[in-house]
Design brief:
The protein has helices at 85-90, 99-109, 113-129, 143-153, 182-196, 216-229, 241-251, 255-261, 279-288, 307-312, 332-351, 359-373, 407-413, 441-463; strands at residues 8-20, 28-37, 40-46, 53-60, 64-68, 70-75, 132-137, 156-159, 202-204, 206-208, 233-237, 269-273, 291-294, 316-319, 391-395, 420-425, 428-432, 435-436. With 464 residues, the protein is α/β, with parallel strands linked by helices. The longest helix has 23 residues, at 441-463.
Length: 464
């Protein structure tokens, strides 16, 4: 900037931080600054060149690492208030299997619209506090209330409706209020997508809960709608052996092979878990550009997830928590750490490879991978000029980050959600110095204390 040039006004300027971009070159700017105008990054570079910008809001990033916001690519908003409840039940009696049909869907059936809104407020606030700036809802009750909560909290997300049109015989019967006719399921899914299509931060997807509880006609028609609307379908696929047995018995093929036979595989299909895949099914994922999500806290109890193979074959795969009803935490940093250990256990003994996948690569799966899987990598997932300003500032003042030779190593191997201090989503500061902005956390806790006994009593009667 010459002496005659005035600084350019921008909405937000962050200076003095170590910026881990996670771009193609893995650039790290050790004393870096980011300028944000509107909801986009307009400049990144050394702090000593940041004088060309004048921020309406200025954040001193000294002692902080800046990262792209983490992405939770498979989440159940309606199960947020289940954290620890199933474990509590299991201390008194064995849990019935499969858990999703005997407990998770029944829990969701007990939620009123305001309960889902409350679940969203708790969940999305929790996400921001651990560095997650975007989520993909798997499909739950009252999705418009999820969208309302996401807008109020300030997070980016994709909401979806729990979509079930048959109960089948495995596990408990699907509660009547969670079961729809084919026509109702299709109509409600399409209408949800249409209602949210003009919102720049929260959008809606189609959903199919699982092949066991969705009829072939509904699966075909939802797939056709996804092509017409050019929107993703969130589903669970190859999550359990019972699912494989079901499609083999009914249709003579494994789940992904059967979906291929009926012509529904495409890049619109987002498949959570994707654990028990045959080699041919992985080929189908690659050929049809399916996206997937690896939920590190529970996938390894199902089988040997082929995360490394899928990632290196270019399959769009991200990381997910599955909600606190599964692993307890919503911390994608921890999911990445668990996935690293899990992939070492699965691969190292077989291939005699000390480090089959690095912590840095897993951090990319939790950011770039999630963005690719959600179809928004042109917008988020790395820190680059022109992309949307979704990023987090993490404190490195604690002893576990010292000495700080390599910011990328610390970001990938040491940081966890509670190191996140400040969060920016869509160019807005939504958490500053661990304080959530624009929402009343104490009021949310008070409402939770009031409603939880009511919901729990309904649930316990239902599953007794």
């Amino acid at each position: 900037m010459t002496q005659t040039q005035e600084p350019q006004d921008v909405d937000l300027l962050v200076t003095g931080a170590k910026i881990v971009t996670l771009d193609k070159e893995n650039r790290v700017i050790r004393d870096g600054a980011i300028a944000v105008d509107g909801n986009r990054i307009v400049w990144m570079g050394p702090t000593n060149e940041a004088g060309r910008y004048k921020g309406k809001t200025v954040i001193n990033g000294n002692g902080r690492i800046i990262l792209p916001g983490l992405i939770d690519a498979h989440f159940h908003t309606g199960q947020q208030l289940l954290r620890g409840k199933l474990q509590d039940i299991a201390r008194g009696r064995p849990l019935k299997l499969p858990v999703w049909k005997n407990y998770l869907i029944p829990w969701e059936s007990c939620l009123d619209p305001e309960d889902v809104y409350l679940s969203g407020l708790v969940a999305y606030s929790n996400m921001l506090q651990v560095g997650t700036t975007c989520f993909a809802e798997a499909g739950g009750p009252h999705p418009d209330e999820m969208g309302r909560a996401a807008m109020d909290v300030g997070i980016r997300g994709f909401i979806a409706l729990s979509t079930i049109d048959q109960s089948e015989t495995i596990g408990a019967e699907v509660p009547a209020n969670m079961l729809m006719s084919h026509d109702e399921a299709l109509e409600r899914n399409v209408a949800l997508v249409e209602r949210w299509k003009s919102n720049g931060r929260v959008s809606a997807w189609l959903s199919l809960r699982q092949v066991i509880v969705c009829s072939p006609d509904l699966i075909r028609d939802i797939a056709a709608a996804s092509r017409t609307l050019d929107v993703k379908i969130h589903t669970h696929l190859c999550e359990g052996s019972y699912e494989i047995d079901y499609t083999l018995e009914k249709f003579g093929k494994r789940p992904t092979e059967w979906l291929d036979q009926i012509g529904v595989l495409s890049h619109h299909l987002h498949c959570a878990h994707s654990v028990l895949l045959s080699p041919r099914e992985v080929d189908l994922y690659e050929r049809h550009r399916l996206s997937a999500c690896h939920c590190g806290f529970n996938n390894y109890s199902i089988g040997s997830p082929r995360l490394i193979e899928m990632w290196r074959r270019g399959i769009d795969i991200g990381l997910g928590t599955d909600g606190p009803g599964a692993g307890g935490t919503l911390d994608i940093f921890q999911v990445a750490h668990v996935a690293r250990v899990g992939q070492q256990a699965v691969n190292s003994a077989v291939y005699h490879e000390r480090e089959p996948i690095s912590a840095e690569e897993l951090l990319k799966i939790g950011t770039q991978g999630g963005a690719r899987a959600l179809g928004i990598f042109d917008q988020v997932g790395s820190l680059e000029v022109g992309k949307k300003a979704d990023f987090i500032l993490c404190d490195t003042s604690m002893m576990d980050a010292a000495p700080l030779y390599d910011p990328l190593f610390i970001a990938a191997s040491v940081l966890v959600g509670r190191d996140v201090e400040t969060v920016v989503v869509d160019g807005k500061v939504v958490m500053k110095d661990r304080e959530l902005q624009g929402i009343d956390a104490e009021a949310i806790k008070a409402k939770l204390k009031q409603r939880l006994p009511v919901i729990t009593e309904r649930f316990e009667k239902l599953v007794a």
